[in-house]
C-alpha cells in the first residue's frame, strides 16, 4: 500500500494575514503632563495586550504618527515583536491634525503596497485618530485629509476610530472624518480602557474569515467610559 | 451539447449560478434559513472525452498536473482584503466566475482546495502550488482502484488533511483530487 510521504518542505507556510492599525496621535502642547503620560501608557498597554493574544500577535501591525506643529512617524508599521515600546513623548506646539492624518494615510498606503508586492494578505486597515483640541494647521491639508478618509470609508477601504480627549476636543471636526458612526469622547483619561478594547477588537478581526459576519465592534462596551 | 463544445460562455456561467442558487434555495427551505446563510465559494472540475472544464467562484485554488508538472488553473479571488471574496450567493457571482476549458492531453490530475487548505498548499507570494500537491496527485493516480476505496488508504489521506493541512489554518479546509495514470506512449505500448 502506498504511503503518504509528505515532508515539511513539501508544504508552504504563508504569513498570517495582517491587520494594519495606524495610531494618529495629537502630541500638541495642550497634551503636556498627565494626558501625554496616560496616552503613552495606554499605547504601551495596547502593545502588551496584542502581544499576549495568539491571533492578534501574528496579525496586528501597528504604526504611530504624531502631530503637533509638524508631523512624524514615531513607529513605522511593525508587529509587536519588532515594535519599540514608547518611553515618552514630548508634547509641544500646535495641532496639525490634517497633516497628521495625511501622513498616517501615506504610511498606510506604503505598507499596503509592501503587502501586495510580497503576497501578504491583509484585512481592512484601521485608523485611530486621537486629539484633545481643534485643528490649527493648513485648512487645505485638513480638507484633503477629510476627503481621503471619507472616500476610503465609503469604498470600504478603511475603518476609523475618531477619539476626543477631554472637554476641549473639537468633536465636530472629528465627526467629519467619520460619516458612518459618531466620534467618541473619552471620559477623563481612560486611555487604558480604550486600548484594552481596541486590542480585543483587533483579535476578533484577525480571526475572521470570508463569509463570517463582520466582526462586531462592541461600541456599547465603551459606553461605561466614553460618551458616544 | 456538453459545456466543452458550447461557445456561449456567458450563458453557461449564468446557467451554472442559476442551477446552484436553485439547489441552495431548496436547501435553505429545508434548513429553515436564508439562502445568504449558505454562502459558499465553489470549485469544480469535470471531464468529458478528451476535454476538461474548470469552474471557480471565490477563493481557493484549482491546480492540475500536465506532463508531470504542477500548474495553476484558477487562483484565489480575494478582492483586496483577506476576509472578503465572492460567493455563489453574491450578486457578482456570474461576472467573477472563472470558466475554463482545455485538452486533457498530458493531464494526469487535478487538485482543488478551499482557502484553508491553500494556506499550506499554495504560495501566496509566488502563486505556485506546493510540491505536496504533485505527490498527492501521483499517489492517487498510482493507487489501484481497490486501494483508493480501501478504508486504510482513505484514512491516511484524511489524516494528512486533518493534521498537516488543517492544523496550519483556522479557515475551512477542503481538498479534492482527480487523477489518472499517464496515457501510454505508442513506443511503450509496442
Architecture overview:
The complex is a heterodimer of chains A (228) and B (190). Chain A is an alpha/beta fold and 228 residues long. Helices cover 37% and strands 18% of the residues of chain A. In chain A, helix 5 (171-176) links the parallel strand 5 and strand 6 (184-186). In chain A, helix 1 (34-52) packs parallel to helix 6 (191-206) and helix 3 crosses helix 4. The N and C termini of chain A lie far apart (66 Å). The model of chain A has no long low-confidence stretch (mean pLDDT 88). Chain B has 190 residues and is α+β, with helices and mostly antiparallel strands. Chain B is 36% helix and 25% strand. The radius of gyration of chain B is 18 Å and the shape is globular. The relative contact order of chain B is 0.15. The mean pLDDT of chain B is 89. The interface between A and B is large, with 30 and 45 residues.
Amino acid at each position: 500500500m502506498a504511503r503518504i510521504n509528505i515532508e515539511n518542505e513539501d508544504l508552504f507556510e504563508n504569513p498570517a494575514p495582517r491587520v494594519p492599525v495606524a495610531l494618529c496621535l495629537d502630541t500638541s502642547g495642550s497634551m503636556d503632563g498627565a494626558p501625554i503620560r496616560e496616552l503613552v501608557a495606554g499605547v504601551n498597554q495596547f502593545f502588551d495586550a496584542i502581544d499576549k493574544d495568539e491571533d492578534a500577535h501574528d496579525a496586528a501591525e501597528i504604526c504611530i504618527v504624531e502631530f503637533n506643529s509638524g508631523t512624524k512617524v514615531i513607529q513605522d508599521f511593525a508587529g509587536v515583536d519588532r515594535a519599540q515600546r514608547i518611553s515618552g513623548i514630548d508634547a509641544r506646539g500646535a495641532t496639525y491634525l490634517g497633516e497628521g492624518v495625511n501622513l498616517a494615510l501615506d504610511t498606510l498606503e506604503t505598507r499596503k503596497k509592501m503587502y501586495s508586492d510580497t503576497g501578504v494578505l491583509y484585512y481592512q486597515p484601521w485608523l485611530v485618530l486621537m486629539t484633545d483640541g481643534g485643528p490649527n494647521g493648513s485648512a487645505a491639508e485638513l480638507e484633503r485629509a477629510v476627503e481621503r478618509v471619507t472616500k476610503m470609508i465609503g469604498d470600504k477601504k478603511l475603518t476609523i476610530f475618531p477619539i476626543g480627549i477631554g472637554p476641549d476636543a473639537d468633536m465636530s471636526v472629528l465627526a467629519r472624518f467619520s460619516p458612518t458612526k459618531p466620534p467618541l469622547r473619552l471620559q477623563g483619561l481612560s486611555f487604558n480602557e480604550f486600548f484594552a478594547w481596541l486590542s480585543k477588537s483587533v483579535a476578533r478581526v484577525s480571526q475572521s474569515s470570508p463569509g463570517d459576519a463582520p466582526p462586531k465592534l462592541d461600541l456599547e462596551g465603551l459606553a461605561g467610559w466614553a460618551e458616544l | 451539447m456538453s459545456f466543452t463544445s458550447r461557445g456561449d460562455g456567458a450563458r453557461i456561467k449564468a446557467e451554472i449560478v442559476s442551477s446552484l442558487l436553485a439547489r441552495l434555495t431548496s436547501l435553505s427551505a429545508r434548513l429553515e434559513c436564508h439562502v445568504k446563510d449558505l454562502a459558499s465559494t465553489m470549485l469544480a472540475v469535470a471531464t468529458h472525452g478528451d476535454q476538461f472544464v474548470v469552474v471557480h467562484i471565490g477563493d481557493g485554488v484549482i491546480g492540475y498536473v500536465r506532463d508531470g508538472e504542477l500548474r495553476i488553473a484558477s487562483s484565489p479571488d480575494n478582492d483586496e482584503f483577506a476576509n472578503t471574496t465572492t460567493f455563489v450567493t453574491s450578486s457578482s457571482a456570474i461576472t467573477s466566475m472563472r470558466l475554463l476549458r482545455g485538452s486533457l492531453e498530458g493531464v494526469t490530475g487535478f487538485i482543488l482546495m478551499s482557502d484553508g487548505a491553500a494556506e499550506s498548499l499554495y504560495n501566496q507570494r509566488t502563486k505556485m502550488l506546493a510540491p505536496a500537491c504533485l505527490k498527492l496527485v501521483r499517489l492517487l493516480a498510482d493507487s489501484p482502484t481497490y486501494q483508493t476505496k480501501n478504508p486504510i488508504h482513505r484514512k491516511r489521506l484524511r489524516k494528512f488533511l486533518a493534521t498537516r493541512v488543517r492544523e496550519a489554518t483556522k479557515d475551512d479546509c477542503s481538498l479534492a483530487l482527480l487523477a489518472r495514470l499517464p496515457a501510454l506512449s505508442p513506443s511503450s505500448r509496442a
